[in-house]
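Hi U.,

Before I forget, here's the chain from the pilot set. I'm dumping it here mostly so it's searchable later in email.
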Amino acid sequence: MGKGPRRGYPYTWVPNHLADAQGNVSPRSFLAALRKAAEDTDQRYPDHEWPLHYESIKRGVQAASGIRVDEMREDYPWVDVLMELLRGKVVPCDFEELAQIWPKDALDRLETRGQQGQERLPPAHLDEGPEGLRRDLEELGVFLRMRDGRVNIPDVFRVGYGLGRRGGVRPIRHDAGR
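Structure:
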């Protein structure tokens, strides 16, 4: 995967970049990543010696990330509300940096929507404030608490929600649509 000395191996690279914080990979997003990578390789690198070009695999991961974010948006709309506010942030970072971005009125709106039954699957620990939301996001596999306490976001969500990571797969550009 790439040209440099730290390049990864496609056999493990794809599942590692499509896994949530609990190590689970959605079959739908895995197949979408491979399909996009194959189409992209055929279009951009028709003379490439291997079936999938490493740049095409990265584009496949971007496409799959968009699909996974759409699935999350459908099942847990409140996650989308919180994650869209983090667009452009670079992870890993301290949780306090993320919590400060979530305005109190956004948390109040989530609580109201949950009380009115507008959320099919509301955050279970919303009454605990930002720390409760962190716990809910960790349980969903969106947030990963690192040993030093910082928060990391797996590529499958980070890319689709437009967050950065030094040396990682580039986020989907906001104007590129989903």
